[in-house]
Every structure is written in C-alpha cells, then in structure tokens.
TrEMBL record:
The keyword Transferase applies. One of its GO terms (molecular function) is 1-phosphatidylinositol-3-kinase activity. The keyword Acyltransferase does not apply. GO terms for cellular component: cytoplasm; phosphatidylinositol 3-kinase complex; plasma membrane. Gene3D superfamilies: Phosphatidylinositol 3-kinase Catalytic Subunit, Chain A, domain 4. It comes from Wuchereria bancrofti. One of its GO terms (biological process) is phosphatidylinositol 3-kinase/protein kinase B signal transduction. This is PI3K/PI4K catalytic domain-containing protein.
Length: 173
C-alpha cells in the first residue's frame, strides 16, 4: 500500500506509508487513519503527507451525495460571484465486504483545518464574553452603543477562530 495513486484523487501520488502517523481512531467503528509521504518535489510548500481514513461498517453513500450537492451549490454560488472558499473533502464508498457484509469507504483528511466542534467550543467562550459586554437583558443595546470597543474586539476574535488555519477557508464535515 505505498508508492501508488490516491484512490480519492488520481492527481495525487502516495509515497511511502508513514507508520508513525497511522492509527486507529477511537470511535464506534474504529476507523483506520492512514498517512503517506507526499513524493512530489514541492510537497513542503503544500502538504508533506496525504492522509486518508479507511472506514469499515459505515454507509457513506449518502455522505458522498451530500458532498456532491455541496460542490454543485459552490459552483452556482461562484457563478453569481459568491465565493465562500469551500474546501469539500472526498468520500469514496467502495462496496460491501463479502465476509462481513459491511460497507467500506475512504474519507479524505483535510489538512490544517478545525472542526465545527472546535469552532462551537471557541464561540461558546465568546458567547459568555458577549453576555458580559452587552450586560443585562434589560439594557443590552444601550450598553453596546456606549461601549462598542469590546464588541469590535469580539468580532476580531471570532474572525480569528473561524479562519484559525490561516488560509481563509471554511471546512464542512
């Protein structure tokens, strides 16, 4: 399983399997995280590894269709000059395992991203801060107008959380 073409993207070559980065992910189906070195000469500029999750027992056909709809919507939005900078990951359902009658799939791991759970957890802390800034429910607007600086700071922090990976992309899982 090394020195081959990626099953998710034929434009990506997978180099040697990086055993140190491979692991079983702790969840109900125990998917396997696989990592390969990127053999491309300029890999250090983009991504030094290609990572894929192998899942056995999850039916990801509906996920694949949902992601295809997201790609279509992204193209429609871009045609109307709405670029949301979406990076949509690849899913490849492969069919049934003949021994156990379970579906197997590959899922692309997006590099340098944060999950919606990470964003939600970070915004949870900001929501507490926002309540402090706005004050009691009786006078929220007056407090916000009399002291707009903390709200501007909160907006700045929220912006940093959403774009935490630095490339300005939103990631949907």
């Amino acid at each position: 399983m090394q020195n081959m073409i990626s099953p998710l993207d034929i434009s990506n070559s997978l180099g040697a399997l990086n055993i140190e980065l491979c692991k079983v992910i702790g969840s109900a189906k125990q998917p396997l995280r696989l990592a390969w070195t990127n053999p491309e000469p300029l890999a250090r500029l983009h991504s030094e590894t290609h990572q894929i999750i192998f899942k056995n027992g999850d039916d990801l056909r509906q996920d694949m269709l949902t992601l295809q709809v997201m790609r279509i919507m992204d193209a429609l939005w871009k045609s109307q000059d709405y670029d949301l900078c979406l990076s949509i990951y690849e899913v490849l359902p492969m069919g049934r395992n003949h021994l156990q009658k379970e579906l197997a799939s590959y899922v692309e791991i997006m590099q340098n991203m944060i999950s919606p759970l990470d964003i939600s957890n970070s915004l949870g802390a900001l929501n507490i801060e926002l309540c402090k800034v706005i004050g009691s429910a009786k006078q929220p607007l007056r407090l916000a107008w009399t002291n707009p600086e903390p709200l501007a700071r909160l907006h700045s922090e929220t912006h940093q959380i959403i774009f935490k990976n630095g490339d300005g992309r939103y990631y949907f899982l």
